[in-house]
Amino acid sequence: MKKTQVSKRLFKEARRLLPGGVDSPVRAFKAVGGTPRFIVRGRGSKLYDADGNRYIDYVGSWGPLILGHADPRVTAAVKRVIGNGTSFGAATEVEIRLAEMICRAMPSIEMLRFVNSGTEATMSAIRLARAFTGRERIIKFEGCYHGHSDSLLVSGGSGMATLSIPDSPGVLRQAARYTLVAAYNDIQSVQRLFDKYPGEIAAVIVEPVAANMGVVQPARGFLGGLRRLTKKYGALLIFDEVITGFRIAYGGAQGLFGIKPDITCLGKIIGGGLPVGAYGGRRDIMKMMAPEGQVYQAGTLSGNPLAMTAGIETLRILNDARVYRQLEERTAALQEGIAAAACQACIPLSIARAGSLLTVFFSGGEVSDYSSARSCDTGLFARFFNSLLNDGIYWPPSQFEAAFVSLAHSPQDIETTIRAAGKAFKQL
Ligand SMILES: *Cc1c(COP(=O)(O)O)cnc(C)c1O
Question: What's the predicted TM-score (pTM) here?
Answer without folding.
Answer: 0.97
